[in-house]
Amino acid sequence: MDADAFLARARSGLAGVAAPPLPGTRPPTPASGDGRLFDRFAEELEKAGGTARWVNRQDLSAEVYELAIEMGAAAAVVSDDVDEFRERIDRGLADAGCAVGPVSREAAAAADLGVTGAVAGVCSTGSVLLRAAPASPRIASLLPPAHVAILHEAVLVPGFEELFDVLGEQLLEANAAVLVTGPSRTSDIELTLVRGVHGPKRMTALVVREE
Amino acid sequence: MTAGEERAGTFAELAHVQLEKPGLRRAIGSAMDRFVVNRANAFAGADLEAMRAAGEAIRAHTVARLDVYLAQFAEAAEARGTKVFFAADGAEAVEYVRGVVRGHGATRVAKGKSMASEEIGLNHALEADGVDVVETDLGEYIVQVAHEPPSHIIVPAIHKTRQDVAELFNDVHHTDLPADPPELTRFARELLRDRFLSADVGITGVNFAVADAGAVVIVTNEGNGRMCSTLPKVHVALMGMERIVPSFRELAVMLPLLTGSATGQRVTAYLNVIGGPRGPDDVDGPDEVHVVILDNGRSRLLGTEYRSVLHCIRCGACQNVCPVYRQVGGHGYGAVYGGPIGAVLTPLLDGFERAGDLPYASSLCAACTDVCPVRIPLHEHLLSLRRDVARERAGAAERSAFRTWSAVWSRPWSYRLAARLGRAGQVVFARGGRIRRAPFPLSRWTSGRDLPPIASRTFRERWKRTRRGSRNGAPDGR
Description:
The structure holds two protein chains of two kinds.
Chain A: H1 3-13, H2 37-47, E1 51-56, H3 60-71, E2 75-78, H4 86-95, E3 99-101, H5 105-110, E4 113-117, E5 120-122, E6 127-131, E7 146-152, E8 156-157, H6 160-173, E9 176-180, E10 185-186, E11 194-195, E12 202-209
Parallel strand pairs in A: 1-12, 2-3, 2-4, 4-7, 5-8, 7-12
Antiparallel strand pairs in A: 5-6, 6-9, 10-11
Helix pairs in contact in A: 3-4
Chain B: H1 11-20, H2 24-42, H3 48-64, H4 66-79, E1 83-87, H5 90-103, E2 108-111, H6 115-120, H7 122-128, E3 132-135, H8 138-145, H9 162-173, H10 181-198, E4 201-204, E5 208-210, E6 215-220, H11 224-230, E7 234-240, E8 244-245, H12 248-263, E9 270-274, E10 288-294, H13 317-321, H14 323-328, H15 339-350, H16 352-355, H17 367-371, H18 378-393, H19 396-409, H20 412-426, E11 430-431, E12 434-435, H21 443-446, H22 459-471
Parallel strand pairs in B: 1-10, 2-3, 2-4, 4-7, 5-8, 7-10
Antiparallel strand pairs in B: 5-6, 6-9, 11-12
Helix pairs in contact in B: 2-12, 3-12, 15-18
């Protein structure tokens, strides 16, 4: 149907209908941020089945090494948005004997681990926001069975309200963005929780602390 | 209006079939109990009433300005390279999607969960064109393989036990899988992974469309929405025209209401914001994004007392608390949308001819209204619909019967006479202290329920004797 005709039909249906105003203040959504940001973030992410670690920049290699060993990762893809941490990540993976390739569909589908940056972390829900961009391909956090997101503590925000306030502009420009909270999961069979359906089975956030 | 198939039967017929199924009521009931507990946990510590009030205000505002927000959405989305199509009805929407699929020579479609696509019968149309359509939400995949419609908005295969699913998969795929949810899920993951990677077109539903951003939002836990909107070259998102929020600001209120009410989560594993096709330097993402906006009878409701049914955010919470849904499950309704919201929406979209019995599939207990995250007065709508259906349907005989009944019961003497006659007449029908079967036309009523018989002494008679007795010094009239 022609767009104008479609909208005209809606308009005529609404003739004489007054729109109540949008609420002026928003009620806080459940448990939006209080307490120490990282603690809240870690607690909520764990509830969702993920893990969060609080790391010093110089310990990043060791953390990545440990994670790769723990997962028995033989191949990883690392997206370019980890920029300033890149060297440390690569070193950790190399030490663990994990091969690192550029992100392509084939490489991501075959990798055991995907490492990406994140543009924000939401403490009330333990979520990380990934924004698609040339340096941030979507498949790096989607196809491998494990995903590690690395973010600065400075990008932690208390709750959804702040996320959308701060990042509204960014989201207006992104072709795609995804807020990730823990591993992929389902309860479709008898409401039994199973982790690892189409997305990663494991999800870890490394929050890099400013010293 | 709807391209879906004919209903398999009336509510009364289908409900009977469902009630005979062993274990079904227990399975649905225990799942629904867990949903109710999970929801309570999700909102623990929150001012749920304030959230519901805000949710209602946002939905009421948006739907009352739907034409404005839809125009804004379309303009913003098109500016980002998304193709927007307005479909007057299901047939137009199906035709458009078929055209997109054909235009790309696509033979494989990966589909994410979309109730709107069920509403318009999209899968059947594509399959008739020889396209291989696979549902990728685990629950939707299960019911697709079983050739059944979904039975719940959020958990489509909730009527199936783990044994049912194992038998089904083993039968269809010649496997020997145990009745173990993790094993069954792993099997589906591997099978569907190939399908994602080889699909030409991904089709998903939409949870919210953000008007000022021209973006659509999809929430999933499994990640199939991400897959369908990332891997295939073309992504088609299908949405009912009411699925709009003005901006991300309102989305921040609506999202926790949706996920908390639907699955008892503060947020789902994935919340996808899809702004448009891939940028020129992007490594991945679809080359084309289409958003199909579906009217299919909705705009007819805008100027009516039923407008608020368009506030619905499809969380399924009303199904979980409904005593009728819990007994008969989604398949008892013979409609795409079951439960209280379905009993309201289906007759409004499909007409009374086809679904006029559904408003009666309710006890009017109002649990649905109490739980609705956007405070839709569902039980009031059900009552109003009964009135409308009766106006349209009642024959001359029924009308005159009710007029006579009203006249008889309005006068004390004729009321008393009726009670005496009823008492004499019921002797034939009362068995074991209940009336189990009454003569036609009352039999239509008693086929579904027993009645207590008219008391051997009416209240009036007892009252008279009590007063006489107490005057004589006896404490009661026995």
